[in-house]
Amino acid sequence: MTPEFTLTLDRHGGFAGVSMRAELHSADLTPEEAQQVWALVETAPLKAATDASSGRGAQRPDSFSYRLSVETPDDRHEYAFAESVIGSDLQPLVQRLERHLAF
Amino acid sequence: MRSSPSLPPVHGGAAGARAGVRQPHACIVPPFILDHFARSGDAEQRAAALEALTLDMSLRDRRSTAAAVRFAVGVVDSRLLVEKAGPPLGQPHRLIYDIKQETSGSAELVRTEGQAPVDDAAVNEAYDGLGDTYKLFWDVFDRDSIDDNGMELRGIVHYGVGYDNAFWNGQQMVFGDGRLFKRLTLSLDVIGHELQHGVTEHESGLLYQDQSGALNESLSDVFGSLVKQYKLQQTVDAADWLIGGDIVGPTFPGRALRDMANPGTAWERDPQPGHMDDFVVTMEDNGGVHINSGIPNKAFHTLAVDLGGYGWADAGAIWYEALLHYRLQPDASFRSFARLTRVVARRMFGRDSAQAVAVRDAWRSVGVLKSDP
């Protein structure tokens, strides 16, 4: 069962240093799309990425850093991770959300 | 994983002089050897050499010594001096790879030094931009690549799908094709910026966090802008002092990403301060490294304009020498870097020289150094 959700991705840094935000609401998606996105959330190792990014040294010059908020009617979690720790199991979610970034 | 692409192993490591290195003279001048050991010896050799060397050599002395070390290769025990094969001194060794919109895995080597342009604009732009960057460092600062020892300049193009970024990953410069921005290789100051990250890493290891991180970023903006100015042979008055002006498109709400002359005005939400009174305290962007870099950027611009002429001359030389100074610590603050630039300017031009006074005034104008009461 896919819950109602809101995903908010903030991206900072990069060469440009331009902070951008993407928001994705399940209500704006078809049931199939919402199910696919939620599956990406459930399989993404968000806590591990946050843990791996803590402390100095996780960042290389001009790489991105991310803050992701996952909100459902019952819960809200926030994760912060560096681009350098994004693996193949987290990348699909990030790329899906980055499509909605705008100036 | 968005990690370093797998690349063919770095060639080289073979004993012997680089191509074009002159045949040795019959004698060895001791300072050259000391210089070598100070740079490349083991801990004991480095300590002894550093003790013997005078560390406040003038820029010219240091440059001639460094050059002489290269020409002396071959007269010293070959077990101690090992040089990579490659192009003659003063010429870059560029390797451009196409990673074909992936973010990991193997990348194809598509253009090497001396090869003709290929049918791919990003490849040729990276090749040319890295060459232009090498040329500034060699012509003006007598620096032989990122490590001052002929390091290959590796550029990776077509990284990711619509990747809106370029970065230095510790080994190579990586460029995306852009989605919201234009192709990152379109901008010479972007290429110079990324190569300078490599130089900074080799020379000072400035931590990429808080003020030292903002200094790291500022150095990349300064030398990235100087690369463009040198290429165009622009004086400080003719230069635009913009960063990323060539990669912003019509949907971007501004003329560039950063404006060194007027921090905070490049685009409608430009967060850069130009004075310590407006220093931004934030957890994002490693403590605002791309934000607070506006302050040392403005200091450099103020100095360069005050001195006039070409920015890479006196102003650039002072910044470059400060970057190389042995007292520059990885966690340097704006103030400690400012003090080093004053030390360097006094040593290079004289205690009461116009350059030394201008350096002091530039840092005072942005609130990093205190003004007289």
Task: Describe, in plain words, how this protein is organized in 3D.
The complex is a heterodimer of chains A (103) and B (373). Chain A has a four-stranded antiparallel beta sheet. Chain A is α+β, with helices and mostly antiparallel strands and 103 residues long. Chain A has three helices and four strands. In chain A, β1 and β2 (20-25) form a beta hairpin. The mean pLDDT of chain A is 94. Chain A has helices at residues 31-43, 46-53, 91-98; strands at 6-13, 20-25, 64-72, 75-82. With 373 residues, chain B is α/β, with parallel strands linked by helices. Chain B has two domains: 18-203, Elastase, domain 1 (Roll), CATH 3.10.170.10; 210-365, Neutral Protease Domain 2 (Neutral Protease, domain 2), CATH 1.10.390. Chain B is built from eleven helices and seven strands. Chain B has helices at residues 30-40, 43-52, 59-71, 121-141, 188-203, 210-232, 285-288, 294-307, 314-324, 334-349, 354-365, and strands spanning 94-98, 108-112, 153-159, 166-168, 173-176, 242-243, 258-259. A five-stranded mixed beta sheet of chain B has the order 2-1-3-5-4, covered by helices on one side. In chain B, strands 6-7 form a two-stranded antiparallel ribbon. In chain B, a hairpin with a 4-residue loop joins β4 and β5. In chain B, 48% of the residues are buried. Chains A and B meet through β1 and β3 of A and β4, α5 and α6 of B.
Write the layout of secondary structure elements.
The complex is a heterodimer of chains A (103) and B (373).
Chain A: E1 6-13, E2 20-25, H1 31-43, H2 46-53, E3 64-72, E4 75-82, H3 91-98
Antiparallel strand pairs in A: 1-2, 1-3, 3-4
Chain B: H1 30-40, H2 43-52, H3 59-71, E1 94-98, E2 108-112, H4 121-141, E3 153-159, E4 166-168, E5 173-176, H5 188-203, H6 210-232, E6 242-243, E7 258-259, H7 285-288, H8 294-307, H9 314-324, H10 334-349, H11 354-365
Parallel strand pairs in B: 1-3, 3-5
Antiparallel strand pairs in B: 1-2, 4-5, 6-7
Helix pairs in contact in B: 1-2, 1-3, 4-5, 4-6, 5-6, 6-8, 8-9, 8-11, 9-10, 10-11
